[in-house]
Write a structure and sequence with these properties.
The chain is α/β, with parallel strands linked by helices and 420 residues long. It contains 17 helices and seven strands. It has a five-stranded mixed β-sheet. The protein folds into three domains: 123 residues, Ribonuclease H-like superfamily/Ribonuclease H (Nucleotidyltransferase, domain 5, 2-Layer Sandwich), CATH 3.30.420; 131 residues, Helix Hairpins, CATH 1.10.287; 135 residues, no CATH class. Helix 5 packs antiparallel against helix 10 and helix 7 crosses helix 9.
């Protein structure tokens, strides 16, 4: 939602604007009203139900009449998810919503009354006061298919975290019972590893199955990735292992509970990724982003859903800021500080862009020459990778804005089109 009509960032609100600051709670929200030249109303408490929301709308109208205001700006702190029912309700009623940074509210609390006191009514007044000063953020409130995409991509992330947790527990069991296993099978979650964990989890199980069985099934499950020599080495390691044999029954019980859940999670993640791919087909800007070599479905979905859609932004600076990739430095006098990214934005969007940058930093990828030029000039690898992440986002923005397919050698393609 644009904040250009009633309030602009960095400028005080006009005299005829009612400002409503809301401190968001789990079950109850606290709101106060104010205007540029007035004090604050008494706190008004809002419950999470329709009657309370409708009553709050009537209270807003009363506050507008009391302060002789024509329009209303409603703001809240940009944390958590408890704001969503009230936020979407007010948005659908045509109210203009803004956010304030938690960093600003934290700093402003003591300035308000020279006291570290924290309470919901005070927090609401602090939020309202910051809005009056124009210290606001534009809220990202996705709608329709993009909102659906955001919820599903978050579901996938939760599944991936749970899978990682399970794999770590399996790793722990193997590190105790068969530590040498890593020399042959480095990834505990690959297909061959999971097959062996189900059929022959411990060294004595492998020995009992025999070398010929191990050769056949390792080759079959890995589709030739693991050779007979790998099976022979694993078999020898099983014979000579220093793994702990005590408590084997407990380890087997834990594996028997973890492996079915892991198998189910893998299927669920595959299904949710298929669903994400189908949703992206209905979002036009995704086809321009997916055309970039090295950018996958998950990165595309994260950028679109976390930003609320690239096409809604009028400039690249705002988009970079949403990702938390905008730079800052701390300098004073003759001292010039080192530049860092703020990391104040959508963390999932930033994470996926950084992973994409790691791919682009490999030889043969579109942005490898850009990355190599930075590192050759003395830029640290991590900073160069961040620069690549920002570059990726700029390319995405340009392609969506111009509705243009990605061209690896853009300058050369431009010359060819000019000649034609």
């Amino acid at each position: 939602m644009s904040n250009g009509k009633l309030i602009k960032r960095g400028r005080y609100v006009k005299r005829d604007i009612l400002v409503v600051g809301i401190d968001i709670g789990k079950n109850t929200h606290v709101a106060v009203g104010t205007s540029l030249e007035s004090g604050f109303t008494k706190p008004y408490y809002i419950k999470n139900n329709r009657d309370s929301y409708e009553a709050f709308e009537r209270v807003i109208e009363e506050w507008k009449e009391r302060f002789d205001c024509k329009d209303t700006v409603i703001g809240f702190e940009s944390t958590g998810h408890y704001w969503k029912p009230l936020g979407y309700y007010l948005k659908n009623k045509g109210q203009q919503l803004v956010e304030v940074s938690p960093n600003n509210t934290k700093k402003a609390k003591e300035m308000m009354d020279n006291s570290p006191l924290k309470c919901d009514p005070k927090d609401a007044r602090v939020i309202g006061d910051l809005i009056k000063q124009g210290k606001i953020l534009t809220p990202i409130i996705p709608e329709g298919v993009i909102l659906c995409l955001r919820e599903i991509i978050h579901t996938r992330e939760n599944m991936v975290k749970e899978r990682t947790s399970i794999l770590n527990r399996v790793h722990k069991i193997m590190d105790v019972t068969f530590p040498e296993r890593r020399e042959v099978i480095k990834k505990v979650g690959n297909k061959t590893s999971l097959f062996l964990l189900n059929e022959a989890p411990f060294p004595e199980d492998i020995i009992e199955k025999g070398i010929e069985w191990l050769k056949e099934w390792m080759r079959k499950e890995s589709r030739g990735h693991y050779k007979h020599s790998d099976a022979e080495k694993l078999y020898e390691l099983a014979i000579e292992t220093i793994g702990v044999k005590e408590g084997r029954e407990g380890s087997l019980y834990e594996l028997s509970s973890l492996l079915p859940r892991l198998e189910k999670l893998n299927k669920e993640i595959d299904a949710v990724e298929f669903r994400i791919e189908k949703i992206l087909e209905s979002i036009e800007e995704s086809k321009y982003i997916l055309g970039i070599k090295g950018i996958n479905v998950i990165t595309t979905a994260a950028v679109i859903s976390e930003s609320g859609g690239i096409s809604r932004y009028s400039g690249i600076k705002s988009l970079v800021k949403v990702a938390g990739l905008n730079l800052y430095e701390v300098s004073s006098g003759e001292h010039k500080g080192e530049k860092h990214i703020t990391k104040r934005g959508r963390s999932l969007m930033r994470q996926k862009l950084y992973f994409a940058a790691l791919q682009q930093a490999r030889e043969g990828m579109p942005l490898y020459s850009f990355y190599k030029r930075l590192t050759d000039n003395g830029v640290k690898k991590t900073k160069a990778q961040v620069a690549v992440a920002i570059k990726i986002l700029k390319i995405m923005y340009s392609l969506v804005r111009d509705k243009r397919e990605f061209e690896w050698d853009y300058k050369r393609a431009k010359k060819v089109r000019a000649v034609a």
